[in-house]
Amino acid sequence: MKTIEDLGDLAGRRVLVRSDLNVPIKNDVIGDDGRIRASLPTLVKLAKAGAKVIVTAHLGRPKGTPNPEFTLAPVAKRLGELLSAEGITVHFATDVTGDSAQSAVQELDEGEVLLLENVRYDPREESKDEAQRDQLADELAALADVFVSDGFGVVHRKQASVYDVARKLPHAAGGLVLAEVDVLKKLTEEPARPYVVVLGGAKVSDKLAVIDNLLAKADKLLIGGGMVFTFLKAQGHEVGKSLLEEDQLDVVRGYLKEAGDKIVLPTDIVVAPEFNADAPATVVAADAIPADQLGLDIGPDSGKAFATEVAAAKTVFWNGPMGVFEMAAFAAGTKAVAQALTEVDGLSVVGGGDSAAAVRQLGFADDAFGHISTGGGASLEYLEGKELPGLAVLEED
């Protein structure tokens, strides 16, 4: 993949950057600005090179129509606050490629940044019709001279602002995309050992391909979160009212048979009678969950055992919380794993999505880990061995 340096002198040139600024926002307040901060190094590099930087990004799922709930205006404000420390001014266009965008691009000075409105306001962005995507890509390309792909969280999407526009302009990978790919290669090509993978989250079905691909590569797979109850049920245990994917039981039985002691399951579980922050929590053995209870976290013994496995590893990839970390009574398992990752003498990777949100909510600093991915879905698809369209197009001449 070409880098920004391969694009030559960018002074005075219009550079379209696809960033991933899809952050949680409620009442115009950003809950976690991690993805915004991760986008800064590439934007600063381009602005300092004298480029006119035009950023396209999405927020949420507005389903192809303008919706105030999904405006990028709060993101533009936060981006401006962060870039002001570098002396960089940020402007905001109120549409994607229309009059506001075109006028703002014409008025943009060297070293300034312009954020376009939510690209998913335009139904052509996510269209399955290649001709429609191509039309939007033409309009985006007309705003710029070169394209930089730096939104790792969307490189697994074949969308106009990710894939199609890259085929119309001289293009390069941004620093964030290069860093993410470098880390993923370390997880899949001769990782330092012991290599431990920690998987959590709600559903086994979301992680099947990852388990398939990593069973042969990892030394240990630690399973927590809601998905663990399908594993426990597959072993013949009662799981009460816990989350369960019965249609995956045979698949999970196959994993357990194939993996032997590679797969490590919790030995105790924190349960409660209902999904509620104030519900009375108790700890039970993993093979003795009461029929009227549901599991909401791995137990303290399991937290210690998982932490021991993680801390002894040389390479760790973690995707998915161990429990309902948003509720204090069910956050201890996730916190134990996060703490152990900070103690790894090697590469520790937090695989984006809920895992990234969890470590920040639980008070861990980003630099306590080797890498926090900005792309949960993209990371998983890479680890599944899939080709990511947004990366494949960058390798084209």
From TrEMBL:
Class of enzymatic activity (EC top level): transferase
GO molecular function terms listed in the Swiss-Prot or TrEMBL record: kinase activity
Entry EC number(s): 2.7.2.3
Binding site for ATP: K207, G295, E326, G352, G353, D354, S355
Reactions it catalyzes: (2R)-3-phosphoglycerate + ATP = (2R)-3-phospho-glyceroyl phosphate + ADP
Protein name: Phosphoglycerate kinase
Subunit field text: Monomer.
Positions that bind substrate: D20, L21, N22, R35, H58, L59, G60, R61, R120, R157
Pathway given in the UniProt record: Carbohydrate degradation; glycolysis; pyruvate from D-glyceraldehyde 3-phosphate: step 2/5
Keyword GTP-binding applies: no
UniProt superkingdom: Bacteria
Principal cellular location given in the protein's record: cytoplasm
Pfam families xrefs: PGK (PF00162)
Organism in which the protein naturally occurs: Kribbella yunnanensis
Family, as annotated: Belongs to the phosphoglycerate kinase family.
UniProt cross-references to HAMAP family, sorted A to Z: Phosphoglyc_kinase
Places the protein is found: Cytoplasm
Keywords: ATP-binding, Cytoplasm, Glycolysis, Kinase, Nucleotide-binding, Transferase
